[in-house]
Amino acid sequence: MSKLSTRKKEMPPWRATPSEAGDQSDERCPICLDKFQNKRQLNCKHEFCKDCLKQAEAANGPICPICRVVFGKIIGDQPDGRMSHQILTFPLPGYSDCGTIKISYEIQSGTQTAKHPNPGQHLYGIHRTAYLPDNKEGNEVLRLLKKAFDQRLIFTVGTSRTTGLDGQVTWNDIHHKTSMSGGAESFGYPDPEYLSRVKEELKAKGIE
């Protein structure tokens, strides 16, 4: 029987804390708390047994269990759909020197897959619109959002916060401005910190 199989039941939760990890100079894996087997070091410098890291990745994706830095490509469970955009000539509040990028998302209705909460049940599609300023930073965010959409990270499937219904396509923790005005409390502009915030949200999912 392998070393890994004999200690599975003693392994702590996949997300190890710095206190649990301790000083890695003692050559112990912070997941199984035993001596390294086939040690792998991530770009963030944290080290793990190869098989321990493989199991952690299967559970939570390619995210360091200690510092949460993404070390691979995260693919979400967003259903099939389409993302498009167009340029509007009028400006957003707070961005009087440029036009507006209007983003359109269309997610098709269908059947939930094994990745979703209720496989085989109906999936209710949606159409969503969002806005960005048509300047250098706005176009950078557009590029990042397109990358996130292609990796199926913009939407997920779950319970609607507004209706309470299951099997709904919902936003997946990457905030969008769905209104052109009204300020942050109305998911609109002006909101001078929005572009920097959404870039941080995207970075947390490995999109940069």
What CATH calls the topology of the largest domain is: Enolase-like, domain 1
Which CATH class of the largest domain?
Alpha Beta
Number of domain modules: 2
**SSE order in H/E notation?**
HHEEHEEEEEHEEH
**Which regions have little confidence, pLDDT < 50, spanning 5+ residues?**
1-15, 17-24
CATH architecture assignment of the largest domain: 2-Layer Sandwich
Largest sheet: 3 strands, antiparallel
Record the strand order, biggest sheet.
3-4-7
As a whole number of angstroms, the C-alpha radius of gyration is 21 Å
Let me know the average pLDDT: 87
End-to-end Cα distance: 42 Å
Beta-strand proportion: 15-25%
| Global shape | globular
Helix content: 10-25%
Domain RING-type: 29-68
Region (Disordered): 1-25
Pfam family, one: zf-C3HC4
Pathway: Protein modification; protein ubiquitination
Structure notes:
Residues 29-68 form the RING-type domain. It catalyses: S-ubiquitinyl-[E2 ubiquitin-conjugating enzyme]-L-cysteine + [acceptor protein]-L-lysine = [E2 ubiquitin-conjugating enzyme]-L-cysteine + N(6)-ubiquitinyl-[acceptor protein]-L-lysine. The chain has 208 residues and is an alpha+beta fold. It has two domains: 3-60, 2-Layer Sandwich (Herpes Virus-1); 81-203, Enolase-like, domain 1. Helix content is 22%, strand content 20%. It is built from five helices and nine strands, in the order H-H-E-E-H-E-E-E-E-E-H-E-E-H. The protein has helices at 3-7, 18-21, 50-60, 136-150, 194-203; strands at 39-41, 47-49, 81-88, 100-107, 110-111, 122-123, 126-133, 155-158, 168-171. A three-stranded antiparallel β-sheet has the order 3-4-7, with helices on one face. A hairpin with a 5-residue loop joins strand 1 (39-41) and strand 2. The protein is globular and about 60 Å long. The model is unreliable at 1-15 and 17-24 (pLDDT under 50).
